[in-house]
Amino acid sequence: MSQVLRGAPVAQKILSEVAEYAKGKSLRLDVILVGHHEASQIYVSHKLRQAERVGIKAVLHHLPEGTTTREVVDLIQHLNETPEVTGMIVQLPLPAHLSEQRVLDAIAPHKDADALHPHNLGLLAQGRALWAPATPWGIIELLLYYDISPEGRHVAIVGRGRLVGTPLALLLSRAAHYGNSTVTLCHSRTDNLYAYTRQADIVVVAVGRPHWFGPEGLKPGAVLIDVGIHREGGRLIGDVQTETLSKAGAYTPVPGGVGPLTVACLLSNLCRLHRAGSSIQ
Ligand SMILES: NC(=O)c1ccc[n+]([C@@H]2O[C@H](COP(=O)([O-])OP(=O)(O)OC[C@H]3O[C@@H](n4cnc5c(N)ncnc54)[C@H](OP(=O)(O)O)[C@@H]3O)[C@@H](O)[C@H]2O)c1
């Protein structure tokens, strides 16, 4: 029988630590949402609700679809200079006419709750980051909670996206108690991809393709982390084919695996921003 690695208890633990930290403090998370992407609106309302639940003030800036890059950047600069704002995030994806790079680069590194600014990714690459992108950090928290040490093990990550695959590869290969693994980072140009994933003790799938990763790509008994989230016919499904799960020693379900950890780690990041305070400004 495969072990099911549920995200809820891990997220609960993180959220109670956040609530404890937030007590008696004025933490504020500003969320910028542009346009009417359906899934983004759901994710944002979830983030706002969870923030309020743990005592963090959450402020939504919902901008119309036709907003220009300049207008988003102006808002970010205003929030950068507003002392009450502890941190902010820009919900991705942005409408196609906007420059994601210019928008993310405008966030002051010390207010960058998603840790996507080049400064913060640079610190991550050097092993000096005080906070990290929420989803990969959530995966680390999940492994630690279930006592699955990545140390010394071969981890294959499928997908080199800037939100998940690339920062996770940096985290797992660091000389830290949650790192020290040997990482293979696969992507759409990897030849014979399953030859790599089949050798891995832990496989993380973050490709953004529904029910894509098949059982022939997994070593029996390996740990399988499915990061994908897709809405299909009113239900949520992941990047991994259902038949793959029974071959794993342990796996994250979709929904209920990595998903709950992303919000919890985002709010935990806000505490880290607050703690780091003026020393990094
Ligand atoms: N659970 C959560 O809270 C959460 C949070 C964030 C993201 N997600 C999900 O995680 C997934 C990945 O997100 P992301 O933002 O990292 O995506 P992304 O930036 O679009 O990256 C996708 C990666 O997958 C690779 N890829 C695509 N097709 C492939 C194929 N056939 N074979 C091998 N590699 C392939 C791409 O390779 P190239 O680089 O070569 O194009 C790319 O590196 C999505 O399903 C997203 O919805 C979930």
Residue runs with pLDDT of under 50 for 5 or more positions:
none
* End-to-end distance: 50 Å
Q: Which compounds are bound in this model?
A: NADP nicotinamide-adenine-dinucleotide phosphate
For the largest beta sheet, what order do the strands appear in spatially?
Answer: 1-11-8-7-5-6
How would you classify the helix and strand content by structural class? alpha/beta
Mean pLDDT: 96
Helix count, per DSSP?
10
Shape: globular
* E-strand count: 11
Helix content: 25-40%
- The count of domains is 2
Text of the CATH class of the largest domain: Alpha Beta
Query: Topology as H/E string?
Result: EHEHEHEHHHEHEHEEEEHEH
Gyration radius, rounded: 19 Å
Question: What's the main sheet like?
Answer: 6 strands, parallel
Q: What features would you highlight for this structure?
A:
three-stranded parallel sheet; 2 domains; alpha/beta; binds NADP nicotinamide-adenine-dinucleotide phosphate; 38% helix; 281 residues; six-stranded parallel sheet; Rossmann fold; globular
SSE inventory with pairings:
Blueprint: E1 3-4, H1 8-22, E2 28-34, H2 38-53, E3 57-63, H3 69-80, E4 87-90, H4 100-106, H5 118-125, H6 134-145, E5 154-158, H7 165-173, E6 182-186, H8 193-197, E7 202-205, E8 223-226, E9 230-232, E10 235-237, H9 242-245, E11 250-251, H10 259-276
Parallel strand pairs: 1-11, 2-3, 2-4, 5-6, 5-7, 7-8, 8-11
Antiparallel strand pairs: 9-10
Helix pairs in contact: 1-10, 3-4, 6-7, 6-10
The chain binds NADP nicotinamide-adenine-dinucleotide phosphate (NAP).
